[in-house]
Design a protein that fits this description.
Blueprint: H1 4-14, H2 23-55, H3 62-82
Helix pairs in contact: 2-3
Length: 84
Amino acid sequence: MLSGNSAMARFFQGAGLTPQSSLTETGFTMRHILGLICQFITLTLLPSIVIFQLFFGFRLIVMPISLLCGVILFSLGTWLRESR
């Protein structure tokens, strides 16, 4: 069975956050993870808003505003993931 320290070390090694990694590699990894989180939030939140609109309804202006926010958030996530 793995001890807590070795499992945690494996997690950080998988994310590229080893003690031997340089600061630029760590910054790249953090930007990549943040970009992935931004894209994941966008891809899960927009369909949820559509379903909420269908079942409960709210003002129609919310849909284009949420779509615009989703496009901006997804673009930001793409930029973070592709930047070096």
